[in-house]
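Please predict the structure of the following assembly.
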Amino acid sequence: MSKPRTTLAILIIPLSYIIFFLFTTSPKPYYHTLFLSSSFSNNASISLHLHTLTRRPHIAGSLANAEAATHVLSTFTSSSLKSHIVTYHVSLTYPIHRSLILTPTQSSKPITFNLKQEPENNPYANEVTPTFHAYAKSGNVSGLVVYANYGTVEDFVRLRDELSVNVTGSIVIARYGKIFRGDIVKNAYKEGALGVVIYTDKRDYSGDEWFPVSRSMPPSGVQVGTVYNGLGDPTTPGWASVDGCERLSEEEVELSGDAMLIPSLPISAEDGEVILKSIVGDDGDLVGPGPGILNLSYVGETVIAKIENVIGVIQGEEEPDRYVILGNHRDAWTFGAVDPNSGTAIAERFDKLQKIGWKPRRTIILCNWDAEEYALIGSTEWVEDNREMLSSRAVAYLNVDCAVSGPGFYASATPQLDELIKLAAQEVRDPDNTTQTIYDSWIGSSNSGVIGRLGGGGSDYASFVQHVGVPAVDMRFGKDYPVYHSMYDDFTWMEKFGDPMFHRHVAMASVFGLVALRLADEEFLPFNYISYASELKKSVKDLEKEKLGHDIDVSQLLKAIEDLSTAAQAINTEKQAIKGVLKVRELNDRLMMAERALTDRDGLSERPWYKHLIYGPSKYNDYGTKSFPGVDDAIDNAKKLNTKASWENVQHQIWRVSRAIKHASLVLKGDLT
Ligand SMILES: *[C@@H]1O[C@H](CO)[C@@H](O)[C@H](O)[C@H]1NC(C)=O
Ligand SMILES: *[C@@H]1O[C@H](CO)[C@@H](O)[C@H](O)[C@H]1NC(C)=O
Ligand SMILES: *[C@@H]1O[C@H](CO)[C@@H](O)[C@H](O)[C@H]1NC(C)=O
Ligand SMILES: *[C@@H]1O[C@H](CO)[C@@H](O)[C@H](O)[C@H]1NC(C)=O
Ligand SMILES: *[C@@H]1O[C@H](CO)[C@@H](O)[C@H](O)[C@H]1NC(C)=O
């Protein structure tokens, strides 16, 4: 996108638009093409907004984050969006006191760690919140150190069964990189550990050089983050945290099973290395316990803080009561440069389209979420607040979180959106190889165009998909991102390594915006349930591997999927013949509601908030996505107990999934039985 071409495009487009406008009455595809043109993609404006939003650290509940909300609100308002702020009052935690002392051997002098990240040249570094784990339990603990690798269930099993290490009474040190940090703490707690420190291992996040010389994490860099395992405000599970609402007490939150019951701290690579030197194991294997002893002290304060979601609306012209919802979060543990500001970029592009006459068919809602980092709180409270309206009116939810951290396109979605995402990726050039489209680079890449699924708890799509059953997509540019949740995730890092010319941001806004435009404007919702059925078939294949020779019957499940496939083909054909506003609307409603049918009123056993029976988080890694999470839970339980009843429960859970899929095909058919 060189300068001369941009200038030319600016000259040509208004002219061609005028010509086009004279000869057509339905110019929607034309607007979509225009949306992708270079005159609509402004890397300078994206860079400027990112600079403004990331100038200071803006953790949820802080003044800086309220100021960032004001900035987003004014950008939305000046982009002709009808905008407002939705406030919730939620339980957040901040660190008050932290200390970590290592006594390497009985005879050696204790080492006190300073728990500080070495400031890079950033004038607001002193405003960064001290490193901590949000919602960690307060307490002072000490014990011999045990090394637990990545802290997975398998790591702890190996410690116990192969290495005969008794974790009870120890302080566990584990490294980041494989599972959600809350699950590391939970696994350590279950084995009897008194406290946990989680460090950033150089092998996973750094090389011989680091930021600001390279994109890697500096030795003093610390990945902070939440250790709470649930979604939304811990004191209001299942309902919205409006001012003065009913709340659980601290004791009730602890009993919920999602709160951590032992203290933990995140630490740097260099502190981790010092601690590891104090551990000896069999045959030189790094294990422990000890002889090093760690004294860990953490005191956090819990406050009910005000959080603000900024909402901007473009009213749909023909179907104002159908919502296409776009979201990204605003709060950040530190400067949050990789955090998206695509929201503001999209708002400005939609504004340009509106100024030349475009009006969406359906309503587009832009959501700038708060307190995502703590427990996806802003989005979850809003979804809980508006559950019935969303359930009857939301067409789809589009999410970006770490929108850009490097080259390469990645997407996850509910499967009826797969085709649409691929089509959109075919319309935009790859910013890192402009001779081909994003789609070409994507299918040529190591992940060969595979679309992930949205069962994990990684970002704000979770409540939409897993609680209400709204079709959704999550997109990003760039995969690994070593300075994640550290104070080095700032504008300088982005400018130097994440996206030097902001062309990846522009491309992301193009794909994301195009998916939104098609969902908002096309007469028939661009959903294809045939891909859903084939995804489900794949999941059944995976499931069959897990049966372990037990007498589990999946034939009902396969039959339900076959019916879904037939219904999906039928509705795709029906589309071609249908005419008349009400008939189109009725067909679209079936496409919209089929995803809802995959949810169940009672939710997953023992995890009733999770209503979706097809996609949910793994019980052992909140970042991990599971197909048929209820069946997965049951299989896991049956493997442990190996009783007749526990295997019968696996069959029961398969029946539940089969019924949900059957309901979805009935909805697609639009017939009563
Ligand atoms: C832990 O130690 C800190 C600092 O010495 C102290 O302020 C705090 O009250 C102690 N907490 C508990 C639960 O003993
Ligand atoms: C581990 O140690 C704890 C406390 O020292 C003890 O109660 C427990 O029985 C030990 N477990 C095993 C399996 O040895
Ligand atoms: C660590 O805690 C233990 C138990 O409370 C205490 O005896 C010991 O003195 C502490 N060590 C240091 C270096 O503070
Ligand atoms: C860019 O795309 C072309 C095909 O259009 C391909 O031949 C070339 O290898 C790609 N370049 C890089 C650096 O990936
Ligand atoms: C935007 O892109 C142009 C090249 O297309 C580049 O010269 C310019 O520096 C970029 N702007 C920013 C803010 O990176």
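The first helix runs from residue 3 to 23. Confidence is low (pLDDT under 50) at residues 1-26.
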